[in-house]
C-alpha cells in the first residue's frame, strides 16, 4: 500500500491546481468573476494548501530519522525549524513572484500558470508514490524470502545438533563483510550517522607493514596537504619548500612482491633489504616542485605552515634576527603597549609567503620588521577560510589580511592602537589642530601630536575591554544589591591595565578569541620568578579570555581563567575551537572514548597534590586559544575505531618520545590487535644503542614525529636520535607467500 501521506499530498496539489484555474478564471472557462466566487475559491485554496503541505513535515522527519538522527524531541525541533523557515521563505518569495506575473501577464494568466504548476506537482507526486509502492513491495518480498531461508537453516541446525552433527551454518567472522558490505547493501544503519559506519572500513584496511630506515632525500618532511595529493618538505638549508607528488598507497606493490606479509609485520634493517629501502621513497613520491622562498638571508620555520581550505595555497614563514644597531627606537616601540626588550628575547624580521602549490611559485609576501611573532607551531598566526590573522606580541597588534582567489594578500585592518579607521579619524579630530591653524594660533602642548609610545590614553582595544569590564561589574552590583563587584573592579584595575595579548584565534569570520596575560610573564622568561610572583599574588592572577567582534569592534564577553562557562563551551563544542580540517574529527565533544579520556585527565589534575577543581579548569583552558591546523586528520587516530597509547602517539603533530616497543593499535569493536607500527626498535637493538633512561643528557633523547595521510593507510614516522633522522614507512601490504 502507498502511504496515506503521499496520497493526501497528491490530492491536495490536484485540488489546489484546479482551484487556481477557477480563481482567475482561466480564459478557456466562460465564467464571470464575482466577489462570492472569489471568496469561496480562496477559502478552498487555503484548505487544499493545508492538505498538500502539512504531510511534508512527517516526510522530512522520517527521512531525518532514517539518516541516523535520534528519534526524539531534538530531531522534531530541528525538522520543525527547517520546515517553518522554508515556509516563511515561500511566504516572502511567493507574493513577489505572483506580483511579477500579475504585472506582466495579468491576473487570469498568472492564476492559470500557478494552477498548471500545482497539477504538474500532483502528477510528479503520484508517479513517486507508484515507484515507492513497487520498491516497498519488492523489499518486503525479499525480506520475507530471507526470513524463510533463515528459519529453514535454523531448523536444519537444530536437527543436526539433535543427531550429534555439527551445524554447517556458521556466522561470518569477517569484520569487513559485517561492517562494510552489509552497510553498503542496506545503505543506511537505523541508529548511526553515515559518517560512523562509512569509517568502519578503516578498521579492516590498515597499515599493517612497517619498513624501517628507508632512504630519503636530504630534506625535512613536514606533512601532507589535506587532500592528500602532495607531501610538503623543507630543504636541508631551510630556505626552500619541496613538494612531492603522492603516488598512492599501492605504489610499492611491485617492489614488495617478493616480501611475505604473514611471518613478520616489518622489514628490518639489513643488507638483503637495502635495495627496497633505497627505492621505497621514490615509489611513493615524485618530486613536483622546489620553490626557493627565503632569498634575503633568513630561514624558514619548519614548524610553521598553513594550507588554505581549497588546498591551492601554502603559507610559510621566514625570519632572521636583527640587532639594536640596525633598528631605531621608534621601530622597537610603535605603541604605548609595546613589550620592553629583555636579555632573553631578540627582535626579528618576519616574512610570510603564500605559495601556489600546483604552479610551484611564490605568489605574494608580507613583511614585519623589528617584531616578535611566535610562529613556532603556528602559535601567533591563524587562518580561517580566506582570513589570515597575525599577532604581533611585541607591538600588541593583530593584523588581518584577506587571501584573494589568486593567492594575493589584501590588508584589511590592524587591531590594537585603533580598532578601525573610524577610531583613527576620531583620535585625529580630537586634537583639533586644523582649528588652531585656521585661527593662526599656536597649538597647545596638550593638542600636539606625540609619538605613539608616549600616548597616555589606552589603545582602542584595551579601552573597549576596560569599558566592558566596568559595565559588567556595575550590572552585577545592581543585580546583587552590593557594591562588591564594582569595588573589586577598582581594586584590580591596575592588573587589568597591565594585561598583554599572548595568543589569539579566529572563531569564525567575525569573532576573535584573545588571551591576555600579565606583562611580566612576557618579559620574564624565568619560570621560577613567574611562579614566585603568582604565589605572592594569588588573587591577582589576571589571565583573561576576550571574545571580540572585529567587524563591529565590540567586546562580546570576558572570561577569567577559571571560567566554568568557557570550560563548558570548550567541552561541548570543542570542534568550534579546533576547526579541524579533513573528514575525521575526533574530540571530547563528538567522540565517547575521547570524552572518557578527557574526563580521566581532568580527574587526574583534581586528585594531584595541591590540585583542585579550579586548577583543573585553569589547566584545561590554558589550551585556548587553539593553534591553527595542529591536528592530524587521520581515521587511524579516531578513538571510536582504534585504541592506542596516547602517550606515544596522538592527533597532535608535535614530536613525541620514542616508544621502546612497537606502537599497537587495537580494534575498538573486537578488542583484538589490528596492526603495529615498528619505529626502529629492531635497529636500535642491532646497534646496541643504550636505553633512553641511561642518558640524562636531553640532547641524546629520541624524538619521533608522525605524518599521516588524510585518507590512505599510509603513515610516515620520522625518528630523531641525536643528529640522525631515521625514516620509517607504515603501509598496507598483503602478500601471503
From TrEMBL:
Gene3D superfamilies: MFS general substrate transporter like domains. Residues 141-153 have a biased composition (Basic residues). The keyword Transmembrane applies. The chain crosses the membrane at residues 6-26, 38-57, 77-101, 113-133. Residues 141-169 are annotated as: Disordered. The keyword Cytoplasm does not apply. Keywords: Membrane, Transmembrane, Transmembrane helix. Its main location: membrane. It comes from the Eukaryota. GO terms for cellular component: cullin-RING ubiquitin ligase complex; membrane; nucleus. GO terms for biological process: positive regulation of proteasomal ubiquitin-dependent protein catabolic process; protein ubiquitination. It is found in: Membrane. GO terms for molecular function: transmembrane transporter activity; ubiquitin protein ligase binding; ubiquitin-like ligase-substrate adaptor activity. This is DET1-like protein. It comes from Euroglyphus maynei (Mayne's house dust mite).
